[in-house]
Amino acid sequence: MESENVNQCPLRGPGVGPEGLVGRRLEEILAAWHRSGDEESGDPLDVWLIDSQGSSVHITTDSDWCLIVEASSSHEGYGMDSWGRVEVAPVGDRTPFAAHLGEDIVSVREEFEPKTGRIALEVTFASGRVRCDSWAGNLRLSA
């Protein structure tokens, strides 16, 4: 039986409506990366977009491969014994969002699949866009 609520994550519900991001100025970006030894994963596990009022929107994926968009503050990094460590820090220039710091969000667009829920979110700025995808359960960011 297909979910009647294709616009939400089956395990976590709808989250926050990304349209609330429109008109907000992107002031800070934090991200969580998995690090194993000296190697860091290419794409972050989580991203937090923080606006000029200090509000934070968390973007990540869930175990059902749904793209989560929720109002949530960042967490601290943590160790995972022999599996490495998760580090949380400002992104610097390590994600496509970095090119849009200080800009207002002009629009957002979501994509959904019936069994998974939200699978993508595009965030558009005057100077370009950033696409957030849930790909095989991993968060992918692209310009």
General description of the model:
The chain has 143 residues and is mainly beta. The protein has one domain (18-142). Helix content is 0%, strand content 48%. It has strands at 26-36, 39-40, 46-51, 56-61, 67-71, 78-79, 85-90, 105-113, 117-125, 128-135, 138-142. The strands form 2 sheets. Strands 1, 2, 3, 4, 5, 6 and 7 form a 7-stranded antiparallel beta sheet that branches. Strands 8-9-10-11 form a 4-stranded antiparallel beta sheet, with no helix packed on it. The termini are far apart.
Give the gist of this structure:
The protein has strands spanning 26-36, 39-40, 46-51, 56-61, 67-71, 78-79, 85-90, 105-113, 117-125, 128-135, 138-142. The protein has 143 residues and is mainly β. It has one domain (18-142).
Please tag this protein with its features.
mainly beta, 4-stranded antiparallel β-sheet, 11 strands, 48% strand
